[in-house]
Amino acid sequence: MHPTHRGYEDMDDYRHKQFRYGIAFVSITAVCFACSLLAAPEPDLALYLAGWTIALCCVAIAWLKPVLWLLGPFGALAGAVLIRVASDGADAGLGPLLLIPILAVSVYGSRQALIVTVGLVIATVLAFQVLGAEGQIDLTPAWRQDVLLAVLATVLGFVTQDLVTRMRTERNLAEERGRIIEELALTDPLTGIDNRRGWERMVRRSVGLSRRLSQPLSLAMLDLDRFKQYNDDHGHQAGDDFLRQVALNWEEMTRIEDHIARYGGEEFVVTLPNTGLSAARTIIERLRAGLPLPEHETDSPITCSAGIAEWDGSETVRELVARADRALYRAKKAGRDQTVTDEDLDGKPSNDSRGS
After folding, report:
1. Domain span including residue 44
2. Do the domain assignments include residue 355?
3. Could you tell me if 270 and 167 lie in one domain?
4. What span, in angstroms and rounded, lies between the C-alpha atoms of 255 and 261?
5. Most buried one in 63, 229, 308, 335, CB count within 10 A?
6. Each residue of 62-100: pLDDT tens digit?
7. DSSP label at 6?
8. Are 284 and 177 in the same domain?
9. Would you list the DSSP string of 162-211?
10. Sheet holding 217-225, edge to edge
11. pLDDT 10s digits, 337-350
12. CB-side exposure of 309: number of CA atoms within 13 Å?
């Protein structure tokens, strides 16, 4: 299996960690093999250099082409075997080198890959014993130790793989649980759109984007007029149904880049990126005109008041919301069922034909 699917966040994370692991592996094995080379009576320098070349080339290929990641552990094993033969001789056995591919595959590979790896490791042990004994199978203490080590490495590999799989499963469940909890925390359970907390997280990104791109940003506060009266007359269930329909209708009527959230109660907030005050008024008027009728009614006392403010390029989100809220308050005070912009606060609020 591709290693980036088994414990790494992405390709860069894979390469970064593999580079660190490679440096550590080369440093440690260089010291060990240098000591064994100095202690060897007649070292074979050609095999010694060939082992290092094979190991480093395979690790480099695995680093450049993650799909060929198995070349890393097997190349390291092959290179280590040549280095061992060049320094201590084949009769010294392979020792802990057998752990390299088995543990690597147990952590990053599938169960089938681990079984194949174990078979190859045992075959390697037997092949080297036969070659060292000139065609006769006569296990020396070193090679008997290697066979035992291969068996123990197999057990350790399967146990490690089960533990790693269990840890990844628990981590994935925890991440999914966290994602669901976060989504619930940011979503209004009644309407299905973002709640105030979700909107606050989104609007900060919108303000930051407008600041970087020097684009306008408008914010509208919308409040349903006489909704409490409707709720008292028809019951909370009817009121909830109406709020859900309002959220659904307005979501369908807004642009894909716009964002609508339930600010609280019967109050909604609409964020309009790359939109000036005039265009924002047009959009909000369309939303107010598209206010749905309550179920089983041909006429409704519910209307909508709105206040709009355009971000000035430097104020905080709290200050922007305060200006939009003041515009909404002016709209409610002036008779409801109208849109007031921040620019209208010193003049006469705009009104449409629906009246109060």
Report:
1. 3-181
2. no
3. no
4. 14
5. 308
6. 777 777 766 777 777 777 777 767 766 555 556 666 666
7. T
8. no
9. HHHHHHHHHHHHHHHHHHHHHHHHHB-TTTSSB-HHHHHHHHHHHHHHHH
10. 259-264, 267-273, 217-225, 303-310, 339-341
11. 999 998 877 554 44
12. 24
